[in-house]
Amino acid sequence: MLRPAEIEAIRRAFVRLMPDTASVQRFNQQSFQWVTIGSEPCRVIPKRAITSDGGGGLEGITLWNILLPYDSDVEPGDRLTVGSEVYSVTDADRHRTEPFTLIAQCTRL
After folding, report:
1. Can you tell me the distance from the alpha carbon of 8 to that of 98, in angstroms, rounded to the nearest whole number?
2. What is the pLDDT of residues 16-70, one digit of tens each?
3. Residue 54, Cβ neighbours under 10 Å: how many?
4. What per-residue confidence (pLDDT) applies to 57?
5. In terms of DSSP bridges, do strands 85-93 and 79-82 run parallel, antiparallel, or are they unpaired?
6. How many CB atoms sit inside 10 A of residue 65's CB?
7. How far is Cα 70 from Cα 78, in angstroms, rounded to an integer?
């Protein structure tokens, strides 16, 4: 088991390896607008997946994992803007033991 100081050192190392910045947006129910709630360092990683096209064939699609600092305020339904690309967060992996990063699973809009 890692000591708390070791975990924190690994977390800092991961943040130093994140070359991009994500603008985090959340939909405001009162104003019916997307509101920027912050920005976080990030790394965008494409992830290939195979799905059925509905007619019995297989189709390759690209999903996206976006690595963020482990304590980032990112939830499913949020949007992440990285450069000129916008991603919709479908899941935020918060259930790992000793997380070093937050992994946001996304689709590109």
Report:
1. 10
2. 999 999 999 999 999 999 999 999 999 999 987 666 666 777 677 788 999 999 9
3. 7
4. 72
5. antiparallel
6. 16
7. 16
